[in-house]
Amino acid sequence: MLIVLALVAGLLGLFLHNVDLWSVGAQILRARPYWLCLSLATMFVNLAIRALRWQYLLEPLGETRFSNAFRATAVGFAASSVLPARAGEFIRPYFLARHENMSATGAFATVILERLLDAVTVLVLLAVFVFVFGQDVATHSPMLFTAVTWAGAAAGVVSLVALAILFVLAGNPERLATALQRLERVVPSAFAGMIARIVRKFARGLGTIRRPSRLLVALAWSFPLWLSIDAGIWAVAVAFGFEVPFTASFLIVPLLTLGVAVPTPGAIGGFHEAFRIGVTVFYGVPDDAAVASALVLHALTVGPSLILGLFFAAKVGLNIAGMRQVADRVEEGRANL
Fold it and tell me: Chain-centre distance of CA 297, in angstroms?
């Protein structure tokens, strides 16, 4: 916990270094409200598309109602907003399993698949920006632009390799479980049997990628999702008067992805600094305006899922302390393996 607090303090210190807070406040007050409302609306659209895509990925495990997928998605993002280390990724399948007749382990496998689909989509849009729209931006900071390009290419390779590994795992879950049961020859039978049961459920959750057509449909869902996310980011930029094209979000989003990878609650600090770097370095936005817009964008990004998620969790008696306990139990289970 102390490490997390130190990360938050360090990133916020870097983010607010040499910033005129009075100017930041004035920039926020001058932001155009109708563009901010548009950005807020896209956040609800994002949650709905995520729930629809997840519902489709869950079909091999059984029929899932959209309302339950939507509530679980909101609860998961709310948990990630108040707990460190992306705890919501574990809480989301647990919450869904409480309301649907399915394995939380299998549902968690679809969450991993979601993240890979997200990574592929973001990197495809980054490639479109680099090769079609990015020539003018590259002249502002060629070294950083090159670094982003190569980092995106490397992440793309890693994502495709991970998809291939998951494809192999999903190919025949029963045979995979049988192979793992052979561990009984070298480890205690109870331990080997437990691993086999977990892997069988996990592999069943990857059922979508056993058929390429289903995987392509799931990937197709990812593009309207991320274009909606891009629209929300661009709307905030326009609200603050930045002269940036819509395609600028194709570059900003990968930077934000790196920022939210820092394991702080709600990506506090990492999100803000990544956005500030993106708009100041590549588009020449003044520092105070970049800080103001980053604060507003983060509030609009986290706010809807946080409010909805906490509301849905409270309806079933799950508070923040309960979320922490669920996340801790999952971590203990992983450690015991």
Answer: 16
Cα–Cα distance, 184 to 45 (Å, whole number): 48
The amino acid occupying position 10 is G
What local confidence, expressed as pLDDT, does residue 309 receive? 93
User: Distances in Å between the alpha carbon of 111 and those of 68, 217, 223?
Assistant: 15, 16, 17
Extents of the domains making up the chain: 21-336
Q: Which is higher by pLDDT, 62 or 65?
A: 65
Instruction: Tell me the C-alpha distance between 197 and 153, whole Å.
Output: 36
User: What does pLDDT average to over the chain?
Assistant: 81
pTM greater than 0.85 (yes/no)? no
Mean pLDDT of 139-161: 76
Q: What are phi and psi of 168, to 5 degrees?
A: -65, -45
Q: Looking at this protein, which amino acid is placed at residue 329? A: R
Distance, in Å, from the CA atom of 139 to the CA atom of 142, rounded to the nearest integer, reads 5
The secondary structure element, H or E, covering residue 319 is none
- Token pair, residue 160, equals 């495709």
Distance in angstroms (rounded) separating the CA atoms of residues 260 and 5: 15
